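[[Local backbone shapes]]
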Amino acid sequence: MVAAAAAVMALALAACGGGGDEPETEGGATGGSDEVEVFTWWAAGSEKAGLDALVAVFDEQHPDVTFINGAVAGGAGSQAKDLLQTRLQAQDPPDTFQAHAGAELQDYIDAAQIEPVTDLYDEFGLTDAFPADLMDRLTAEDGEIYSIPSNIHRANVVWTNRQVLTDAGLDPDATYDDLSSWMDDMETLKKAGVTPLAVAQAWTQVHLLETVLLADLGAEGYSGLWDGSTDWEGPEVKAALEDFQTLMGYTNTDRDGLDWPESQQLVIDGKAAFTVMGDWAEASYEEQKQELGTDYSAYAVPGTDGVFDFLADSFTLPVGAPHPDGANAWLETVGSAEGQEAFNKAKGSIPARTDVDMSTFGEYQQAAAEAFKSDTIVSSLAHGAAVPVATLTAITDATSKFTSGASDLATFQSELAAANAG
């Protein structure tokens, strides 16, 4: 996932203006003292739509602060994270940056690159607005909170093309009790000449892997992978990896050259039957006028019903932020009811706040909000909630080797165990 040094430097020059000029705002003006550079990977599609909606609220709430868009596209955030680390190490931080809430933040905390924002929770009235379970997941080992979440996403979601299933003689309303019955229908699809399961580059394969681990190990066993109570080298994990291997055999052969919107589009266009992706995918269906229950279905990955595989985008306060007042203004909007409503309607996620009226949201988002209240919550591997960045990088490398045929299952399991031991 680490980009080549030349690519990182090229991105750094582009983001920093190359010749030392003031960065440009979205409107093209140069920034002044009352400004905030917001660093994200929300550069296209529903992610950019969500950011634009949030910026509109920010402009209303803080008209005297100029918003500077520091978005970097590519690799589900991997290129942005590479460039961000380059800037942080050079002591050239943005005013605030996007990061996944949870274990992903620990690397920044350990490197003294971000400051606690615990006091802002009281100042902005967030402690009572966010559910207690979320507050626990936001609180670091030192008892401080280091980010403000803009949303809640669910990772363990299957998206289907109902017509493809019908044409293959399968029940488009089937939701499956376990992976085995799901894979039986994939075999039927494969024999019919249909790609059963669409995936994309390595991070989407890790995303699929985490849902397989969750399905086969259960919520407690899955969570035990991250706290040491589940043995990575045990037979239960081996069986889950065998299911992952079987599922990868039903995927599209061009997967490594695609990113998630393209694999999602394979399903929308009827070129594949299923995909596993977080509920940010919902916006793709809305944009293309697809109707839930008519054109597509969305449900928990087989074997994970009643479990909510959690992640949250959030924003931080970097140490040495050049415009801390601007950063605080942005963080206030991110945590506000108005900001969360506008952002999540556009992005397909649900608000982190419990006091946002969900009646004006789409059918899927309303169902997701209810599930978050009632389901067992676990932390996403692929999206920074369960493990630090270094561990996720090692898991991704091991997964990429395995799915490309460069290692066997025994080696894959050993490498996963080593990644989590370090």
User: Anything to note?
Assistant: The chain has 17 helices and twelve strands. The CA atoms of residues 206 and 382 lie 6 Å apart. The chain has two domains: 5-150+318-345, 154-309+383-421. The first strand starts at residue 35 and ends at 39.
